[in-house]
Amino acid sequence: METRSFKKLGFAPSLLGLGCMRFPQKDGKIDLEETQRLVDACVAGGINYFDTAYVYGDGDSENAVRRTLVERYPREQFHVADKLPIWMLPNGHTPEELMATSLQRLGVDYFDLYLLHNLNKEHWKICQQKKLIPFLFAQKEKGVVRHAGFSFHDTPELLEEILKAADWDFVQLQINYYDWETAQRAREQYELVAARGIPCIIMEPVRGGALASPHPNAVSLLQSAAPDASPASWALRFAGSLPGAACVLSGMSTMKQVEENLRLFGCFQPLSEAEKGTLRQAVSILESLPLIPCTGCNYCKDCPKAVRISNAFDAYNSCLRFDKLPELNKRIQGLHMEDCIECGKCERHCPQHIAIPKELKRVLACAESAV
Fold first, then answer.
1. Residue 104, phi then psi, degrees to nearest 5
2. Quick one: which H or E segment has residue 21?
3. Whole-prediction pTM value?
């Protein structure tokens, strides 16, 4: 497993890290037995970076990390990243309470890395009002946090403002070949971080799985260039080829994914210039499709009308990518899309800044017309 050293980090993270948001499920809960198999394979393959959060799986992710990793391996063998859910503070929670809960769930007495979770314009205001940066760095002084950073979902302009606010140890960005030059402006964000010598932790390299199964035209293009390479491997290699990438997080939920990714990063080969050109062609194909840029993070799940937003968007994107729009109407049954009251709560939590009520209407209209 390739590792990369950065001055701001006191350890060399594995280039491939396990994102713990999408652990395997059984009967609607995390399957601990299967998760343990995945974690064991990851550790055996040289992965030492595990990324979780207070809100992942309603806290079950942190508990699962404790059961499958923390309680079973020497503390010096792994590094755990956890996150403070900023949006919960206006509802009466305190950062001390949230941090203490995460420590308890994980069964650790310090975080290797701790992040202000999902900084965007709204959450940055809360961060400033609640003085979270002084709080975070005070915890670092105490040793409760070894490295302080944040995850980010907004514009390069806001990112630059936040970067100037503290001496950050690392930053976590959504970077993939689709977002690189498109509306997410990932390239600009990456370059702002890299120019400061700050290690970049990459999330959503496969864009919530979308780049593992893109439109058949894009798949054909990639297969013609490398018949034995999966679409997901192209996306992961793009992320790992960036010199400022300290770790590429992959939300692996099957042993097949773990085995493929360990092979890929065990003998990592950066993209050639010709391969980068192939990916630019793939982006042109995907840009021509009216996809909804949902990554399936499910931060929109607390809908007052129980609309299953991410399920609806996944159904639409899947049917569009695979030319199966006639199946869309069947796939969205029971998702309560027609109950949306356009309250806007979901939009405030969406890292991709999707106009959710508007897109729900578009999916309903598409499903009706495709029947």
1. -65, -45
2. none
3. 0.84
